[in-house]
Fold this protein.
Amino acid sequence: MNFVRKTKFGAMAAISAFGCIVAFGNMALADEGEDMDDVDAAVMHVLEDYDIAIGYDYIATLMRLPNAFGEGAACVVCHTSNDPKKSPNGLDLTSCEGIKKGSVHGPMIVPGKHYEGTFRRRMRDNRMPLGVRFDVPKDMPAMQHMKQWIANGAKNDELFKTKVLPSFKDPNAYGGEQSCVECHMSNQEPPSFHELDLTSHKGVMLGADAVAKAAEGLPPVKVVIPGKPMESRLYLRVTENRMPGGIGADQSRDHPNMHVMFRWIDQGAKCN
Ligand code: HEC
Ligand code: HEC
């Protein structure tokens, strides 16, 4: 039996009473697309036009609300304690202090800067290969080889040629059902998502969105930082699950509540 689904639906049934008291609680249902739809954009404009201050009170509700950021369990179903034996990574989202303290890996938010910290990418970045199950281990051989290769300097070396490159063509190497190159095969989108080419060393090192960024006069988005696996999007994408745990890759990455939370962070993440 799938742990995630069980938790997800059990939790939703148990706490759904919260759903009706919060303005954006049901928006996920109308917001299936990849881009923010008109209604969501209009909601965000109200927050900006009136420079509305987001209080911790609303954030506390979001942490307790199922479906708050798209269809999925409430954060506090899993993140209840600073003890890593009792809650994933010792991240306690039941209090303002807990949110600001972060996990055993340090803070997940940087007050004033929602682009920094792990919260933003955990909420928006789907784990790869797209649609891979949440409970797939994060230390599969292909993941370990990728980490080692990046730590060694990400060169076009034996490890890359014999292990890393072939893993991008193997549908099962990262615990999913599709190979990376089925979706990332060239610098052209379509058909290649994010213009990311995982068919050669050159393509991997060039990074994502080379063509789109060039049109804006910007460099491509690097997905590998030689020597630094924990700063390399490529490695993070195959080892970090999008939150809430078990959320579908089809859920919008621009849910209004996510932006409300970003706004609270940008306003200094105040606890009152
Ligand atoms: C079904 C259980 C579950 C739910 C619900 C859940 N998480 Fe998680 N979360 C996990 C697990 C398990 C991990 C650690 C393993 C991983 O990365 O997948 C984690 C890790 C994290 C991390 C990374 C912490 C670190 O050490 O860097 C953040 C941030 C996070 N969750 C935030 C959230 C937020 C915000 C919500 C609500 C939107 C949420 N989680 C809901 C299970 C859950
Ligand atoms: C079914 C298609 C599909 C497969 C298979 C797939 N991806 Fe992706 N990938 C996407 C989509 C769509 C996005 C952008 C949306 C998102 O972030 O969820 C993306 C984004 C990425 C990014 C982020 C690029 C950036 O701009 O920062 C990386 C890195 C990535 N994928 C790596 C991989 C790797 C490695 C694999 C194989 C383990 C893989 N992908 C398999 C569809 C796919």
Remarks:
- Residues 1-34 have pLDDT under 50 and may be disordered.
- The two ends are 41 Å apart (CA to CA).
- Residues 3-15 form the longest helix (13 residues).
- Residues 85 and 91 are 11 Å apart (CA to CA).
